[in-house]
Amino acid sequence: MKYYPVYLIIFSIIISFYVNADNTLSRDPFNQLYPISCATQADILQEQIQSWQLKGMIKRQNSNYYQIWLYSNQQWLTITNNEVPHVLFPWQIKAFLSDKVIWQANLALPCKDSLAWTMSFNP
Q: Is the pTM of this model over 0.90?
């Protein structure tokens, strides 16, 4: 009986650890509490990519080097060799043609669809 307070303290520490760990997991920013429909995700991604205009591009004939410039709301983005800035995440360049860029984005789970967007040169 004399060890009862020690056991109680250890038990309380263990319980508080589990409660705190569970609380931390529920605050995960990538674990959404409110699911977004696939159609809403697609609309958000389309709006994101459509706000940018393709203003310039360079592509070397004998190498894989290329550079493109995008413009939106007084902000310029430079993309070199498929290093897409975080502003355009999850969009990736699927194809780089002489006068346009084809983008592709995968929707978040549980949606299994992907979107494609063709961005034409707009000087």
A: no
Per-residue pLDDT reduced to its tens digit, 3-53: 667 666 776 777 666 655 545 555 555 566 667 889 999 999 999 999 999
What's the rounded Cα separation, in Å, for the pair 18 and 123? 58
> What whole-number distance in Å separates Cα of residue 100 and Cα of residue 44?
22
> What contacts 31, CB < 8 A, 6 or more positions away?
25
What gap in Å lies between CA 99 and CA 54, rounded to an integer? 9
Of 31, 35, 46, residue with least CA distance to 91: 46
Other C-beta atoms closer than 10 Å to the C-beta of 17 total 10
The Cα 116–Cα 121 span in angstroms is 16
